[in-house]
Write a structure and sequence with these properties.
single chain, alpha/beta, six-stranded parallel β-sheet, 14 helices
Length: 446
């Protein structure tokens, strides 16, 4: 058995270059921890790079690199869901272990990719796909393996967290902060995936599968972005003792007479208490709060993106796979038999627990209602909520923004969304209501 592990890196953008730099900087440390020489033998790149070690083969044919006899582990950091999928499947077919940071690809095609890897007795590792350098995948698959996870909540998109932090701390409007995020490189020229929650939904699908032992079901994640959040709502939330964060939730519901059993998968702006741990994770940081039995709540926080953070996660996976490659069966074939399953549960034991529809989900609510300043308006609103079985936790009536019109802020206790939908529909039909009801979900994280 050769004492060296040979890597191919497909894609030499920020992350791919970060992996090369990390290996060069920490070469001795990697060998001390693994007992093997870890070397880059090939890179897949469309253009030749002068700053790459001349001993490394640069190849524009990614398929050839993925199947090369000179490669043990393929690192995919090209992104996208078309070419990346083809390359990964080709690498698996040729017996290569794979490390990827591609959350969109795994969220949408992970079931197929993982099954194919099982058939070919190789492993696909993906720590870098969720929350950058935070080792949340490893924690949930290994450190929490003896726990039953009840729910998790996470700030899993740094761009959205940066925007919400700036709006709260500096009183800046959404559009202004988004423009700065793009200038700083936190957001793409087309920021849709970040601000509409799609990026977070990809990551949540992966976390939920690991947490609950269910197949990946990205298409069933409820997704709501932050483009509708105003400074007005940010300030009212603060006044009531809450902060607005863009969160992903995966929640196990046991069901009762009023609500259905199943799993909630949802990404949306959320009011959370100002003293909550997640409320104080700011800027571009990511954090995931996991509530499990018997451990209780644990928080994992750190850089969710960037060359160093993502390269750190990529190489953590490589180190795990180095140990896998060090294990041989009686026929001198590499085996991944001792490795943790892709989604933490034995594939045959994945559950068919249903994913709840949006109208079946249960949360508290923040409601902002604009109404004519007439006697009896508040009584009408509270009566509608009461008739719908919705309990009010707090009411705040603010000074008029327009002559004769007042904003009323209402916080409710948790309620099934279908009940809230009906109540809002009735409130908006009152002739004293001047605009659509603004609603933002609320969670005490308890």
């Amino acid at each position: 058995m050769s004492n060296s592990i040979k890597l191919a890196i497909l894609g030499l953008g920020t992350v791919g270059t970060g992996v090369i730099n990390l290996i060069n900087d920490n070469l001795d440390e990697l060998k001390r921890r693994s007992g093997r020489d870890i070397i880059i033998t090939e890179v897949g790149t469309r253009r030749q790079r002068d700053d790459i070690d001349p001993n490394i083969i640069q190849n524009s044919d990614l398929m050839a690199t993925a199947a090369s006899d000179n490669v043990d582990i393929v690192i995919e950091v090209i992104g996208g869901t078309t070419l990346a999928k083809d390359v990964i499947m080709h690498a698996i077919k040729n017996g290569k272990h794979v490390v990827t940071a591609n959350k969109a690809l795994l969220a949408e095609h992970g079931n197929e990719i993982f099954a194919f890897a099982e058939q070919h007795n190789v492993h696909v590792a993906y720590e870098a796909a969720v929350a950058g350098g935070i080792p949340i995948i490893k924690v949930m698959r290994e450190a929490l393996a003896a726990n039953k996870i009840d729910w998790l909540a996470g700030i899993i998109n740094g761009t959205g967290n940066f925007i919400m932090t700036e709006m709260r701390d500096k009183g800046r409007p959404f559009a202004d902060v988004l423009a700065e995020a793009q200038e700083l490189g936190y957001a793409e020229a087309d920021p849709t995936f970040d601000v509409e929650g799609i990026d977070a939904a990809h990551k949540l699908a992966l976390l939920a599968s690991i947490a609950f032992g269910i197949p990946l079901q990205f298409d069933k994640v409820y997704c709501e972005g932050i483009t509708g959040i105003t400074l007005q709502d940010v300030n009212y939330a603060e006044e009531l003792g809450y902060r607005i964060k863009h969160l992903g939730f995966a929640v196990r519901r046991e069901g009762d007479g009023a609500s259905a059993a199943g799993i909630e998968l949802r990404v949306h702006p959320t009011l959370i208490p100002q003293d909550a741990l997640l409320a104080n994770v700011n800027g571009v940081k990511n954090a995931v709060l996991v509530n499990s039995h018997p451990l209780g709540q644990t928080l994992y926080c750190g850089d969710g993106a960037g060359a160093g953070a993502t390269a750190s996660a990529v190489m953590a996976d490589v180190m795990d796979l180095v140990r896998v490659l060090g294990s041989k069966d009686s026929n001198d074939q590499s085996t991944n038999g001792h490795h943790v399953p892709h989604l933490a549960f034995i594939p045959e034991q994945l559950s068919d627990t249903p994913i709840l529809r949006a109208e079946q989900m249960t949360t508290g609510y923040y409601l902002r209602v604009h109404a004519h300043d007439n006697p009896g308006v508040l009584a009408d609103i509270t009566r509608i909520l009461s008739d719908a079985g919705i309990n009010i936790d707090a009411i705040l009536q603010k000074p008029a923004h327009k002559v004769g019109e007042v904003p009323v802020i209402i916080l409710t206790l948790p309620v099934i969304e279908s009940q809230m939908n009906l109540a809002i529909e009735k409130i908006e039909k009152l002739n004293t209501i001047t605009d659509k009801v603004v609603r933002i979900r609320l969670d005490e994280l308890a």
